[in-house]
Design brief:
This protein is about 75% helix and about 0% strand. The chain is mostly helical and about 130 residues long. The chain starts with a helix and ends with a helix.
Length: about 130
Amino acid sequence: MERSQIEHIEQRLLRERTRALRSLGRFQEQSKLSRDSADSDLSSYSFHMADQGTDAMEREKAFLFASKEGRYLYRIEDALRRLYNEPEKFGVCHSCQREIPFERLDALPHARYCLDCKLREEEEAAA
């Protein structure tokens, strides 16, 4: 891969990391705000069962989004570690050792596998 392509991928990864961190920060702020507002209520429990269910569902949904974003951040950080520690091996498929096309890395900068190997892995997992 050319140096300009590597620099482009690095900038993409850094932007994605910033976006993921910002998103996780918003989740943390919202979580804190909901705890603070619950503390200021006379009771932190809803009076109606439907309200309790809605509150529980919203908390669970927010947690799932934050968990997904955390896993994404981990993959971005892992890609940056690979890029900085072994730049000559970055963009090489972990399975077949062929170069991952730049177009794939541009679309998914943390990709570890070429498209053929990733499809094969997904087919094996589905079977």
